[in-house]
Amino acid sequence: MIKNKSTLAKLLAEEDIFVVHKQMETAYFNSKSRELGLPIWKDEEMTPAIYDLMVGHEIGHALWTPLDMLETAAIRKIDHGFVNILEDARIEKFAKRKYPGLVGVFKRGYNELAAKDFFGTAGKDTTSLNLIDRINLFFKGNADVTFSDEEKVWVDRAANTETTDEVLDLAEELYAWMEENMPEETKMGEEPVDGSGMSMPGESGEKGEENDGNSGDGESSDESDTGDDNSAGSDGSSDKGEVGDETADKTESLSGAGVSDNPDSSVGDGSPDSEGDIDSTVGGTNSTRAGSVPKATTDKASKDGLDFLRDKEAKDRIYANIPKVDLDKIIVKNKTLLDKFKTFYLEKKNNEGAIYWDKTLEEVENLKNDSKKTVAYMAKEFEMKKAADAYARASTSKTGSLDMGKLHTYKYNEDLFKKVTTLPGATNHGMVMVLDWSGSMANNLKGTLAQLYNLIWFCRRVAIPSEVFAFSDNYDRVQYRASDRDEWEASKMVSFKAGDVALNDFKLLNFFSSDLPVSDEMEMMHILWMYASRWGDYRDWSVDGYPYSPPANLNLGGTPLNDAIIAMMELLPKFKADTGVQKVNTIFLTDGASNTLSGIYDYKLDTKTGEHYEILTPGLPNHNYGSGPVNIILSDRVMNKTYEVSDITNDLLVILKNRVREMNVVGFFIAGSGKAGRVDKNTLYYLLPNEARHTIMEKIKFINKHKYLALDQLGYDEYYVLPGGNALAVENEGLSDELIGAGKAKLKSAFGKSMKGKVSSRQLLNKFVSIVA
After folding, report:
1. Closest to 596 measured CA to CA, from 623, 571, 578
2. pLDDT for the residue 511
3. How many angstroms separate the CA atoms of 86 and 132, rounded?
4. Which residue numbers in the chain have pLDDT < 70?
5. Does a structural domain hold residue 175?
6. Residue 298 lies inside a defined structural domain of this protein
7. DSSP 599-652
8. DSSP character for 496?
9. Domain stop point among 258, 286, 314
10. Quick one: 525 and 660 in the same domain?
């Protein structure tokens, strides 16, 4: 039901507003974030009629209550209850003008709320209530309330308000008039009212548009079920300038005293100017009774009524939207990176000597040359597998034309027709790799780059469009000094809307691209190799040269993996459209869990300046397995889908796959550490918490032998655990000299083992080929 009502709310509001249900006291509409908030209701108390009423009322605020209205009221110190009641009358008048069907919706909803004594008037004489409360009941559909001649002026003005300024002025004047004209004994016995006690629509949750929400749950309905509403399409007033036909059809009582069915009763037609239904001594300067106090008690009662309807035992819910990110502010292009890093390292070469430069360049060139045969072999295997797959899916059919070459066999052969074989079109693949550029990758970085380079060379050889990005939260952090704080603030990626997930400050470093010239590609490989060789590499610095200190913004940092996944939701559709590939293969390579997301964007009012400023609200832990105090709800507005989160990283991957059809998402987790790179059993216990000990040990043996472990991981199509350290190194060794003069069988066996080792050691490339072939 909630999903359907959310759709209804969006249709009524004529915009893609955000409908949420939270553990809060009252409904609200946040005009800044365009968020309609409703409490979590008790299923047995929340009927469809009441739910429709609340949605319809709050949509009225969405359409016609501007953000600054209640803020202006707070600055002017106008009582929030008065503004609430009068603004409710105005927006519900507009709502019923625009959507006549809401006339019946409001009536049915208020009838059911009346039965629950929503306004706290059960058993009371409505004439004993003060003016603002009777105005509230009157415009909420109660035809039993009566007004004096003086009071009719205020009712008429309430019915004819068209602008928010008119509402504020009327609320201020009405409050002052009631305060001036209430009996002296009431003044002495009543507690003072703080006219500034308002909550703002810019604050979410129960501190959101609180007064707006109070009225939103006692939504106004001043038409009958027939839809005969003269105010729909009018200014809400009669020809006589009174409330008039706006309320002529009100016959239902919200006071709890029941429904008046007698057309000849003293209530008359419910209009203040109906003859015989006015007690001229009620309220105003002629009033001798207590009760005309400038305090909206029905507004407070509706709060209590909402409190009863709420399901206080339900888990609270945190709602967040997937934000739209600005890729131009997130991606640092490879040309930019190459210019910065090459200039930096050339200065190091000139100032500190060329030994380290030359040695690392030689290593990269040797790696490329030694890998050429293996990459070529795997490219050939790839083409053969594609051809075999196409042949397996080929279909043969008869053409309907005679094969003249078989015609002479007609006496013993029935198959005399020509045949045609149809080969299915090959799928066009693309590859995007997302690399973890965090500090914990340091000791495994060189082996990871060796694996990555082989994958890049393969993609270039078989003409697969490819991109390689590293996610880093360090690039911007060091780019600006403290004196350049304003410039650093201006460099942030994007200002999100209220309700959006707030990303950490991070960048996607576009190290490699298939359209990068080969010479530039080699220079980038050398730069990254110089950086990686200073970590976890057991070298003789006296021979190989002492490593250069790297540029600060190339340094490793944290692990904004979740942020990178969200950025990929914008990047991958663009990559697919730009390259024209049919299927994208997205590879995430990390060595640990993601940093938590920053939180959720919201706005807060500065009551001194009247301006809003952005704030971050926390509440997005990486895991939410149902045992915590909240449920996290992520909404993807692009695909119009909502997801209840258990593990944010995995659920973000699910959202990503729903955004990009025809995509494989592959995860590589470098779990090993130390020089040997062995995977600890505790790591597998973390990944597989329900596995028995003997099963874990079997998997450890498998990793030690095969250098990988495939797991079923929610969110990934394929997920591989890899060892680290030396186990990441690629093999390029040829046949041993000891095989000189060996027999053909021995040479064949040795060659087979050598090729198998070269292929299996290239884990990234090996698994990628198996996916795309």
Report:
1. 623
2. 97
3. 9
4. 1-16, 26-27, 31-33, 182-293, 385-400, 416, 418-427, 477-495, 536-538, 603-619, 624-630, 726-765, 772-773
5. yes
6. yes
7. EEEEEEEETTTTEEEEEEE----SB--S-SSEEEEEEETTTTEEEE-SBHHHHH
8. P
9. 314
10. yes
Q: Are residues 72 and 152 in the same domain?
A: yes
**Domains held by the chain: number:** 2
Which has the closest alpha carbon to 442: 610, 256, 591, 597?
591
At residue 529, the 3 state secondary structure works out as helix
Q: Are 202 and 32 in contact (CB under 8 A)?
A: yes
Q: How far apart are CA 430 and CA 563, in angstroms?
A: 22
Looking at the structure, tell me whether residues 249 and 363 fall in a common domain: no
- Same domain, yes or no, for 354 and 257? no
List of residues 6+ apart from 95 with CB closer than 8 A? 56, 57, 59, 60, 63, 102
672 lies in the same domain as 710: yes
* DSSP category for residue 36: E
Q: Which of 50, 258, 48, 18 is nearest to 144 (CA)?
A: 258
Q: The pTM is what?
A: 0.67
328 lies in some domain:
no
**308 and 340, same domain (yes or no):** no
According to DSSP, the β-strands at 611-617 and 599-606 are: antiparallel
Buried b vs exposed e over 646-684: b needs ≥16 C-beta within 10 Å? ebbbbbbbbbbbebbeebbbbbbbbbbbeeebbbeeebb
- Looking at the chain, the number of H-run helices and the number of E-run strands are 24, 19
The pLDDT value recorded for residue 710 is 87
pLDDT of residue 388: 59
Backbone angles phi, psi at 213, to 5 degrees: -70, -35
pLDDT at 120: 82
Same domain, 153 and 53: yes
Please give the single-letter amino acid code of residue 321.
N
Report pLDDT digits (tens) over 600-611: 887 665 666 666
Burial class (CB in 10 A: 0-12, 13-18, 19+), 723: buried
Q: Is 178 a domain residue?
A: yes
Residue 405: both structure tokens together: 């070459």
Question: Phi-psi category of 351—alpha, beta or left, where left has phi over 0 and alpha has psi -120 to 50?
Answer: alpha
Enclosing domain of residue 260: 2-314
Given its phi and psi angles, is residue 124 left (phi above 0), alpha (psi -120 to 50 degrees) or beta? beta
The reported pLDDT for the residue numbered 517 is: 95
Residues 348 and 297 in one domain: no
For position 619, what pLDDT does the model report? 64
